[in-house]
Amino acid sequence: DRRGRPYKWLRRGDLMRAKGSLARAGTLVHDTVTRDATLRDALEAVLTDNAGRVAVTGRRGAYEGVVDMETLMNSVHELLEADRLDALEHQHDLEEIRAAQTHTEQEGFGG
User: Can you give the CATH number for the domain in which 57 is found?
Assistant: First the structure.
């Protein structure tokens, strides 16, 4: 619309069928998520949209982009990989602490 808010989804085929009139082309945007929406909010919106996508809005509802299932899955995979690397780092730290404790116990406190 005039304030930059998403109004309709348009595809090439929609434009051809509308025969030049954008007023008749496309399907209405039913749901949006804001840039700071959670992954869960975005997933729920994508799953309830017939086309499997949702418009992302910023300040004052202005259009900023689109989120679809592929985008969400990529985000989840990135988060899982970051968590995995973080867990490996913590595991390594714990192993070092345990090794130091074992060494201290075996050598005694006086060394």
Answer: 3.10.580.10
> Is residue 41 assigned to a domain?
yes
> Which ranges of 26-68 does DSSP label H, i.e. alpha helix?
39-48
pLDDT digits (tens, 9 = 90+) for 46-65: 999 888 899 999 988 999 99
Residues 6+ apart with CB under 8 A from 31: 45, 48, 49, 54, 55
Q: Is 0.90 topped by the overall pTM? A: no
Q: How many domains does the chain fold into?
A: 1
CA distance readout (Å), 77 to 31, 32, 70, 82, 89: 25, 23, 11, 9, 18
What pLDDT score does 20 carry? Answer: 67
Query: Is residue 110 situated within a structural domain?
Result: no
Contact 11, 37 (CB under 8 A): no
- Separation CA 53–CA 71 (nearest Å): 10
pLDDT in tens, 26-48: 888 888 999 999 999 999 999 99
